[in-house]
Structure formats: structure tokens, C-alpha cells
Amino acid sequence: MDRSGVFKDVATTGKSTMGWFHGFKLHIIINDKGELLSFCVTQANVDDREPLKNEGFLKDIFGKLFGDKGYISEKLQKLLFADGVELITSIRNNMKNSLMLMSDKILLRKRSVIETVNDELKNICQVEHSRHRSVINFMCNLIAGIIAYQFLPKKPSIKFDKLETNQLALY
User: What is the pTM of this model?
Assistant: First the structure.
């Protein structure tokens, strides 16, 4: 991996669930309709939680934010909660169970929609390929792919009915 000359001074090597890769990571925030609300590009070796600490990435984002186990951090949860964002993640195998609203549990199971969005960005909008030899061309292709995704007529979405109750949720 170190022999790669593409983006020599910019790209790094990182590890994902699929193995090692050289390049960048695209972090996205979507809503329940599958629309992109925010995105951020980082080097491959950057921790997944780092972009959430960036004020620009979460600008105008509020409410519940669902993430995978890679986003588990009590310190980050408290930091985001102070800004009006409730980070909801599943628990690791070695963690104690925590109380969670049933609606949050159901929505957490629907997190696969984000993987579908990632798949559409990669395969339909072609944001993932290795033909670029300059950072500018890479960024132009990425932004063009994100714009193309926003114009897709049918996006993956979560269909759920919001149940209004008189229960109070205390934090």
C-alpha cells in the first residue's frame, strides 16, 4: 500500500470491516427520506468519530442521529447532546444493556438504509473509483456524484409512523 503514488501526500491507508484500503472516507448524514443533509471527506486513517466533533459537519443538524458501533463514545454523546443532537448507537457485545426507547430500537434496525445510500453513491453516481490522479479531479467527481444523487427520483427511505403519546422522555 505504501508504494502507491496516487495522492501521495494526501491519501492515507486505513482499515475497514472489508480490510485495508488506501484513500479517503466519505462521511454522510441523511434524513429519513434518504436526502443528504451533510457530508465530510477525511483521510482513511481518521477515526470515524472525528467528523462529528467538527462544527461544520453538524451545522443545522438536530434531533436523533443513528450510527453504528464505530460511533460509540460516552464523551462524544455528551458533547453532541449539549448541541441538541442525540447520538443513538447499538451496544457492543461486552457492554451492559442500556435502556432505549422502543422507537429508537426500531429505527436503529433500519440503519441499513445508510448502507443502501452508500451503495447508490458508489455504483449509480460513481463516486468510488481509482482513475483520478489529481485531488481536484477526485473532488470534482465526488461533488458531481453527490449532486447527481440528490437529483435521483427515488431514494432509499424509512417509512415509519410517528406515534404521539403523553409519555415524557427524561434524560
Answer: 0.81
Q: Which of 22, 21, 59 is nearest to 40 (CA)?
A: 59
β-pairing verdict for 63-67 and 85-89: parallel
User: Is residue 20 classed as helix, strand or coil in its secondary structure?
Assistant: strand
Q: What's the rounded Cα separation, in Å, for the pair 64 and 79?
A: 14
Q: What residues have CB less than 8 Å from 15, skipping those under 6 apart?
A: 21
Helix (H) or strand (E) holding 65: strand 63-67
| The domain over range 12-150 is classified in CATH as 1.20.120 | no
Contact status, residue 117 vs residue 34, Cβ threshold 8 Å: yes
The list of the chain residues with pLDDT below 50 reads 1
Residues 6+ apart with CB under 8 A from 127: 26, 121, 141, 142, 145, 146
Would you state the cell numbers that stand for residue 78, as one nine-digit string? 455528551
Helix (H) or strand (E) holding 82: helix 74-82
Rounded to whole angstroms, how far apart are CA atoms 164 and 14? 44
The domain ranges of the chain are 12-150
pLDDT at 93: 64
Instruction: Give the model's pLDDT for residue 94.
Output: 65
